[in-house]
Amino acid sequence: MEQNEDNFKNVYMMGYVSFFTDISSEMVFSILPVYILGLPGGSPAMLGLIEGLAESLSYILRAVSGVISDKMRRRKLFILIGYGLSNIAKPFFSLTSTITQVLTIRVLDRVGKGIRTAPRDALISDSVPAWRQGEAFGLHRTLDQTGAIAGPLLATGVMMYLGWTVQGVFKLSLLPGLIALFIILFGVKEIIASRDSEYKFLEGLGEVLRGRFLWLLLVVTLFSLGAFNYSFILLNAKEMGVGDALIPIVYVVVNVAHTVIAIPSGRLADRIGKEKVLAGGYGVFFVTAVLLFFVPSSVSAAYLIALIYGVYVGVVETVQRALIPGYVNSSLKGTAYGVYYLVVGVAMFIANFIVGSLWTSYGLWASSLYSSGLSLLALIGAILFINKAKP
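Above: the chain's sequence. Below: its structure in token form.
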């Protein structure tokens, strides 16, 4: 398949899909951590277990869908099924009253994300030439995160000014989700993925897991073992004195920083090297983890930490995804993305479970020490990885 700039429209279409899906998702997820803590048995450890289990399952399924989409050389069907499952599942949070019910719906949502993500990333990569992939992923991330800004604002608005309950917000999430599905059906163009030759799963896996891609994967895994997700930033904000109705605004700060940094970090990565920018992102997370422990508890500190955390997410999620195609054969992009998501997902489960357990048993200082230590080691590993590539 010959890539050309005419297919850059697909990047915009997938960006709009993510925009509306993120309005749906983030209006729910911006209030879900506090909602979980209010249920019988809710705690930071339980929050970590729910988030870790849901995310790890999502990442494992990305490996499967990536391989199958490579085999079929088609991505759109997986994208439609994945977004459809997520957008239909979320409104059912309105019917939950126990931790088990919340976990079930959260897992269903992440299953949908797992099905769609590797084929979606491969479709974006297939739609543009190599020299524009940093820009393409940055643009997609920006549109995605613009929806992630609008979602929490909408949640706060309907609760504070219209008197809606949390359950009402959960139900409202269905509307933007349906718009996203409409765009997939009528706006996204299928691209038949290139394949140099027929391959079997194990042959493709063996080709992916070697050389510098394997070393890159080891560095990413080390970092992911300490990288907690946004739920703990929201939990920290609550403990620092931010009211429940304003917790979504803390999430807005995360997503604004994420959005603002996405395209610049993608373009900078194209200019100076993706690996260098990735190492910088690891450094930003290290600063976030350290600040969680050392900054005095206050509402302003909660917003500052959310801002820095958002910069980390915007840099790392943009650049890590754009790195993958440069280390594997073009016919195995979906498999490579799948392996990446599989390994990172297992590491993230461990990270969120350990961070939540440490927070519950010993307090914030223990979680901060764990995450900052591993992120520092990963930063050192990334620097060594970069230096090893120099002639």
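The two ends are 33 Å apart (CA to CA).
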